[in-house]
Amino acid sequence: MIQAWLCDSLERVFPSSRPKRSSLRLDVARGERFSFQAAVIIDAHSLLEVGVAADSGIEATIRRVGYVPLEYRSFQTPPDEIEGYDVLPGWVPDPLFENTKSCIPPTSATAYWISCKTNPDCRPGLKKVRVTLYPEKCHGPKKELVAEVRVHS
User: Fold this and answer.
1) Which of 30, 56, 132, 147 has the smallest number of CB atoms closer than 10 Å to its CB?
2) 132 pairs with which residues across the strands?
3) Sheet bearing 90-97, strands edge to edge
């Protein structure tokens, strides 16, 4: 089984993160750059390929988010100000990798970073950016997540 959700680029997706919502709505201006994330959990080891497609006027690319070890957290920062306090020290999201096809560890969240740019001549209105997840056949059918993007002039 595959679980997937979209989230803001300011939210960190830890390996222990769990689904929050399946949709995302963003407001952007023509000519603006913006980003968001798609997160996925698969219940067993699986090879997963991820693709992105956007309506006309929006260019989109996708990269896999990697994790690095954080050995300790700041002792000067109050716990309520530390995102992921309950899972740190541990693995934190940081590097972005170009590969969109990778082996996903079971029951661990993996994130994909979607970078977009609206063209300066993009028509204002509601647009869509679709993220499609292609797991191995034994883990179910493909899954599509849609971010709604309202482009303003």
Assistant:
1) 56
2) 51, 144
3) 2-8, 33-42, 110-118, 58-70, 90-97
